[in-house]
Amino acid sequence: MPNTRGVLQALGPGLLFAAAAVGVSHLVQSTRAGAALGLTLVTTVLLANAMKYPAFRFGPHYAAATGTSLLEGYRRQGRWALVLYAGLTVATMFTVLAAVTIVTAGLLIAVLGLRVSPLWVSVGLVSTCALLLGVGRYHWLDRVTKVLVAVLTVSTLVATALALPRVDFSTFRLLPPVGELDRASLFFIAALVGWMPSAIDVAVWQSLWTLARGKDSGHAPTLRESSIDFHIGYIGTAVLALCFLLMGAGVMHGTGRAFPDGPGAFAATVIDLYAASLGEASRPLIGTAAFAVMFSTVLTVVDGFPRAIAVLVARLRGPETGAHFELDEPAQKRTYWIALAVLSVGALLVISAMMQSLKTLVDVATTLSFLTAPVLSVLNHRAVLGPEVPAAARPKPWLVLASIAGIACQAAFAVAYLAIRYG
């Protein structure tokens, strides 16, 4: 049995994963899935979570087993792996932050009734996140996110319970009727799977958060403690994905209303529909849950990409000893803040260009993650089976087989998507 105190000291990276995951993929994509197709995509959501489970689990597993980040595992595979990861990161990071920030800005505008451009609200949100990280680094990231995750979990579960009586369970399908769906629906499913529960990049962030949590708490987690923390976050995200799909199916399916493209109008439509169906008393509950979901996602993304880039640059220069995961060295700190500045400016430029095309921006970001997932999953698989991982700490045979199966499925879906779109 794991030590309770040790588990509590290790608790954090899993909740940060939940905060990063339960955002656009849940509030926007899962809700859209329920609204458009009822319960048709329930199994798709569950399969997406199962398919990516090994790739995500290997992040904190590698960190706990070796005392170094997953990027060190990439470095040991060859410089090419780091360059490949860098290329995929640059290809996705601007659209990822832009998508989660513009949705959050739209929610804030809708909840508070602001008459401000979503671009300026986005600037304020990114600046607030940067300030929190600058003052408190991992310590504040961990504390603030735990509060937000608690708020969103409780409010989402209550809202789902209220919506359940309205769900048409006859719309459930074991598998989506692919032959009956049009191209737009198939592309939406690809976008849904792309961020369900999140992009594979987050596995690298989890390994870095695991090491940072160990330094913050003064306790290096065991594999068992790290596994418990991971599963709390991962299972929680899957449950919340189903909650948002159920709410979409119960409150929006069959209403005939379409989601507008503008971020403020999109958020207002979601909140208005819930309030109209569940009662005006639910408006503060829905607004609070939605904003908690999205702000926690923005905060973790603003930290995750720069943190990974700072360590990535250091790994291109040399091996990781386990002493640099909290960006102690001046060079890594500089890289972190330069990366954060570049990421923020790039994301805001994307927002300014696509401010009135919210659904398009979200689908582009999630589809890019869908297409890059197999490559990152292969890197994670190879890392956790590397010679630096002690034999006793390597994944069980069933998990290795599950990883291979997940990679094969992700690759097959990516090829099928490209064939449908460009064939």
Give an overview of the whole structure.
By secondary structure, the protein is mainly α. It has a single domain (4-422), classed as Amino acid/polyamine transporter I. 78% of the residues lie in helices and 0% in strands. It is built from 15 helices and no strands. The chain has helices spanning 4-10, 13-21, 24-37, 42-66, 70-77, 79-112, 118-163, 183-194, 201-217, 223-252, 263-278, 283-317, 330-354, 358-384, 397-422. The radius of gyration is 20 Å and the shape is globular. The mean pLDDT is 84.
Question: Would you kindly provide a brief summary of this structure?
Answer:
The chain has 423 residues and is mostly helical. The chain is 78% helix and 0% strand.
CATH top-level class: Mainly Alpha
**Which architecture name does CATH use?**
Up-down Bundle
Estimate what percentage of residues fall within beta strands. Answer: under 5%
CATH superfamily: Amino acid/polyamine transporter I
Number of domains: 1
Mean pLDDT score, rounded? 84
Q: H/E order of the elements?
A: HHHHHHHHHHHHHHH
Overall shape: globular
Q: Gyration radius, to the nearest Å?
A: 20 Å
CATH fold-type name: Amino acid/polyamine transporter I
